[in-house]
Amino acid sequence: QVQLQESGPGLVKPSETLSLTCIVSGASVSSGNYFWTWIRQPPGKGLEWIGRVSYSGTTDNSPSLKSRVTISIDTSNNQFSLRLNSVTAADTAVYYCARDLFSGQSYGYFDPWGQGTLVTVS
Amino acid sequence: SYELTQPPSVSVSPGQTARITCSGGALPKKYVYWYQQKSGQAPVLVIYEDTKRPPGIPERFSGASSGTMATLTLSGAQVEDEADYYCYSTDSSGNHGFGGGTKLTVL
User: What is the pLDDT of residue A33?
Assistant: First the structure.
């Protein structure tokens, strides 16, 4: 059974860098069929796609966050990470990691998801 | 990011059919994925590639797409289906987006 678990600080100061790691078990982040993805959800609001990384380290990030986001993969420890710099209160959200599987015709098959971790910028 | 539009809320009585729409300019050429999110939980995929159901998703969930609009249909909605539903897709430029979400009330 594939499981993802986010870890990192729950509180970050404005202008500092948010850093989260997603630990993957039951599957290898080195698999070529997947992208490893970060998605966030501000309290009471909708989902926002942040970006993704492939097994080879190729990344693809949201244009609205691109200059502030770094997503990386660590195949040795079977995990991937998110760094978001120069954070403001608008970055307060539940951050989810998820596996994005090629479903035969397209990517977008996010499964499974981590439980999510709330990061507050204050 | 890619903008997808959903109605904020849909309400049905138990046993009725609920339809949630998602509109986007690139949908004629791109697939839609639908996610269900219950309160306090991570989202769960209920429909992928417009019309397909993942393992374990009840048959009452179905999807369709025509032109710039995709539709998630719950045939015979149950109280346990009460949740927020999000569509997801991409555009031809490679931008990714979720719809704003639709709160389904079953009562």
Answer: 82
